[in-house]
Design a protein that fits this description.
The structure holds 3 protein chains of 3 kinds. Chain A has 11 helices and no strands. Chain A starts with a helix and ends in a 21-residue tail after the last helix. Chain A is an all-alpha fold. By secondary structure, chain B is of the alpha+beta class. Chain B is 35% helix and 22% strand. Chain B has 6 helices and 10 strands. In chain B, the strands form 2 sheets. In chain B, strands 4, 7, 8, 9 and 10 form a 5-stranded antiparallel beta sheet that branches. In chain B, strands 2-3-6-5 form a 4-stranded mixed beta sheet, covered by helices on one side. In chain B, a hairpin with an 8-residue loop joins strand 9 and strand 10. Chain C is 59% helix and 1% strand. Chain C is mostly helical. The relative contact order of chain C is 0.11. Chain C is built from 9 helices and 1 strand, in the order E-H-H-H-H-H-H-H-H-H. Chain C is globular. Classes of the chains: A mainly alpha, B alpha+beta, C mainly alpha. Chains in contact: A-B, A-C, B-C. Strand 1 of chain B pairs antiparallel with strand 1 of chain C, so a sheet runs across the interface.
């Protein structure tokens, strides 16, 4: 039975090592030790706060793919961690990882957290991953933040489905690519979709595509 | 003769001595990272807890319906529309809007709502295409595959210079790029560009979720 | 490229003196014979970083013992100068921020083993100079890989001609960038950061005679390049 203490010792050492090392084997392979330790510390802190950590791992791996220097990867992961926290704060504790990630991306392009709160209040029962993704895309293509946020909010209140929002986002960016002003592109494409939707029901509409909340 | 030269050097030093703008945010990040590193170090020195914290053990419930929905949606491949000569996306931009013109079906009851959300969140098959004459290999990298150039290689369509692959993605916004011959970062000529303030290397961007 | 530099700018070091405006000058210092600190350098540099009070050893000692407040004092005290050195070495403000961040994190990690009281500044600059070398090597590799991309530029660099001599800052920066890295490093440490040769040996590991030669060669090359530009 002398092997038991040995095995326990090994287990303890392994546990210590894994706690100190990066959380994800992909980071283990791809980051230099100094960067890995710093990224691991950020990830560990994020995990401790109940934030989704996969986006942080992805952000670090994106830096590796883009051959970014270690410090820049650490900064990017740390910034994203802050945005994830802000997004979760705005979207509420029950936000899904996909929503928190999409919320963080929206914050990164300048969408204010108040817009995230309004979207959540308008559609508490549905995933905001797509609406937030479309909002991010509209803003990054040049549509004014306020305008884009108000549009997505209005569409959500009218019960627009994710596929309709995606179609709108794609059409607008296509028009912009062909030279149309962002605001005009949004106006034109919005007209096409609004006719198909009921008028904005304000905060009473809680579930996409359903006129009354199901009971 | 020396004087003008020395004035020149004075000027050089004066210019280079200007202190650059300092961002308070950058200083704060250093302090935060240092504190986080120290905290991680301390935790690593503590004996491991008998039970991992609840959040670390949280499991995502298996989403069986994703598989079902994936099978259902595989039938309708979505062309991302890259590198084709005609410049026209194979799914016309108007098509989804036309579909949107139909008013949403009147539905009642939680089951129907769940069905709809499942349909909206179900993975879509997305085809990546790049026309890359002379390429020996092409891969797509993005948030969906950990930006790993080994993860999703494209295959050359026999007899052409066109490379293609199809992946399943849940609806949302994705950034990606192609890596040609393991050495060159290539943006999708048919997709919008996403600027990248973090790393300074732009990506292409894709919205997934059309029907 | 969006660098985000336009937002939230604060001036260096919160009350750290602006090095440039009030720098006293003397033409003697740059004469070929003047490779030891001359009067201009003594006076001139005192208008720059020397005017910042030196951090007391007790601050370093507290930081060494894990006092986060003391570490924050160190960072705030040296950040602007470190950023200046890194930007002049790397030619890009975002890269410089990265290098300085990494240098301070390395300082933070190495502080428990720090024993060179009274010589903190050379120790810090040694770590920073090493980081700048590493970054330059990585940037070169990255540049080879990411061929389709435009080179990034420093968004904060002023482009207007200045008042004296019509030299653009950009031309000075270009001439600086064309210097071999070791010469650039020695020139910046000595003339811009005002560090003496003895401390420079601790930073670079090179001998004093070699460092003097590097500084002189750097001056000669810079003069020649910039005179060409001026006469053109």
């Amino acid at each position: 039975m002398r092997t038991l203490p040995f095995l326990l010792g090994c287990a303890a050492v392994t546990a210590l090592a894994s706690a100190a090392a990066a959380q994800d084997p992909r980071l283990e392979e791809k980051l230099d030790p100094a960067t890995r330790r710093q990224v691991a510390a950020v990830i560990e802190r994020a995990r401790g706060r109940g934030l989704p950590v996969e986006p942080l791992v992805d952000k670090a791996l994106e830096g590796v793919a883009k051959r970014a220097p270690g410090p820049r990867i650490v900064s990017a992961v740390a910034r994203l961690s802050e945005r994830l926290e802000a997004a979760r704060e705005a979207l509420g504790p029950n936000a899904t990882p996909a929503e928190v990630r999409a919320g963080a991306e929206a914050l990164a392009v300048g969408v204010p957290d108040s817009a995230l709160r309004e979207l959540r209040a308008a559609a508490p029962g549905v995933s905001l991953a797509v609406p937030l993704g479309v909002l991010t895309q509209l803003v990054s293509r040049g549509v004014a933040v306020d305008r884009a946020a108000a549009t997505v909010l209005d569409l959500l209140r009218r019960g627009a489905r994710p596929s309709q929002l995606i179609a709108l986002g794609e059409a607008v960016q296509q028009d912009i690519a062909q030279g149309m002003a962002p605001a005009t592109a949004l106006d034109v494409r919005l007209r096409g979709i609004l006719g198909a939707l009921p008028p904005s029901g304000g905060a009473s509409i809680t579930t996409i595509g359903v006129d009354k909340p199901p009971r | 003769m020396r004087e003008p030269t020395d004035e020149l050097m004075e000027k050089v030093v004066r210019e280079l001595s200007a202190l650059p703008p300092v961002r308070e945010e950058a200083i704060q990040r250093i302090l935060d990272l240092a504190a986080q590193r120290r905290a991680a170090e301390r935790r690593a020195q503590e004996p491991p807890a008998a039970e991992p914290p609840v959040h670390a053990r949280r499991r995502v419930a298996p989403r069986w319906w994703i598989g079902v929905a994936a099978a259902a949606t595989l039938a309708a491949l979505i062309w991302v529309g890259i590198g084709r000569d005609d410049g026209v996306p194979s799914v016309p931009v108007n098509a989804p809007l036309a579909a949107a013109d139909a008013a949403p079906r009147a539905e009642a009851g939680a089951l129907a709502v769940a069905d709809r959300i499942i349909a909206d969140e179900a993975p879509r098959a997305v085809q990546f295409v790049l026309d890359a004459p002379g390429a020996r290999s092409v891969a797509v990298v993005g948030g969906f595959n950990g930006w790993d150039p080994q993860a999703t290689p494209l295959e050359r369509v026999p007899g052409t210079t066109v490379w293609t692959t199809t992946v399943l993605l849940t609806p949302g916004r994705y950034t990606y790029a192609f890596v040609v011959d393991d050495s060159t970062w290539v943006l999708d000529p048919r997709a919008p560009r996403a600027s990248d303030p973090d790393y300074g290397v732009d990506s292409s961007v894709l919205l997934v979720g059309r029907e | 490229m969006r660098t985000g530099l336009a937002d939230g700018l604060v001036q260096a070091g919160r009350g750290a003196p602006r090095a440039v405006a009030d720098r006293a000058t003397s033409v003697d210092h740059f004469g070929d014979g003047a490779i030891s600190p001359g009067p201009m350098r003594q006076r001139g540099v005192s208008g720059g970083h020397r005017a910042m009070s030196r951090l007391p050893d007790s601050t370093i000692a507290r930081a060494k013992l894990g006092d986060d407040e003391a570490f924050a004092e160190i960072v705030r005290h040296y950040y602007a100068r470190c950023l200046r050195f890194a930007r002049n070495m790397l030619g890009d403000l975002a890269d410089a921020e990265d290098a300085v961040q990494e240098a301070f994190l390395r300082v933070h990690a190495a502080l428990p083993r720090y024993t060179e009281y009274g010589r903190f500044e050379p120790w810090l600059f040694r770590i920073l100079a090493n980081q700048c070398r590493t970054m330059r090597a990585r940037e070169r590799r990255r540049g080879e890989w990411l061929t389709p991309y435009e080179p990034r530029h420093d968004a904060a660099a002023p482009e207007a001609p200045d008042d004296s001599g019509g030299l653009l800052r950009r031309e000075i920066e270009r001439a600086l960038r064309e210097l071999p890295a070791l010469l650039r490093e020695a020139f910046l440490l000595y003339h811009v950061e005002g560090i003496d040769y003895e401390q420079m040996t601790a930073i670079t590991g090179a001998r004093i005679s070699a460092l003097k030669m590097r500084v002189k060669r750097a001056r000669d090359i810079l003069r020649a390049r910039l005179q060409e530009v001026q006469s053109a």
